[in-house]
Write a structure and sequence with these properties.
Blueprint (H helix, E strand, L loop, with lengths): L6 H9 L2 H15 L1 H15 L5 H15 L15 H13 L6 H15 L1
Length: about 120
């Protein structure tokens, strides 16, 4: 991991990974809700894009790492509000890198959402 990245980014980047991401998204899609999962997926597909600059990928990895991280500011098991902090982190990241989110990222996310939410 790049030692020039802020410490928190390094922490979340360690938690982020393909398998933990898909495990959390698949397991908690219904509980987290469509908006949280949609935002996570859009960021995920933007992260996979070679055109996305490194600084934006750092922002994405940080937010997805927080989403995956078991220890949250608000535990995910608390009904109705458990994913509010996750949505806040994901939405903030999406707003920060908005110029790099392409229609194809949104399309891929929407297609994947249909498999979980119909």
């Amino acid at each position: 991991m790049d030692s020039s990245l802020p410490e928190k980014t390094n922490q979340y980047a360690k938690e982020y990974g393909e398998k933990p991401f898909w495990k959390k998204v698949g397991s908690f899609a219904a509980a987290a809700g469509k908006r949280v999962i949609q935002t996570a997926l859009i960021l995920y597909y933007c992260l996979q894009d070679a055109d996305t600059p490194a600084w934006a990928k750092t922002v994405i990895i940080s937010s997805l790492g927080y989403f995956i991280l078991p220890a949250d500011a608000i535990p995910d098991i608390i009904a109705a509000v458990g994913y509010a902090d996750d949505l806040g982190a994901l939405a903030s990241a999406a707003a920060t890198i908005a110029a790099h989110i392409k229609p194809e990222h949104r399309d891929k996310a929407e297609k994947k959402l249909k498999t979980w939410f119909g």
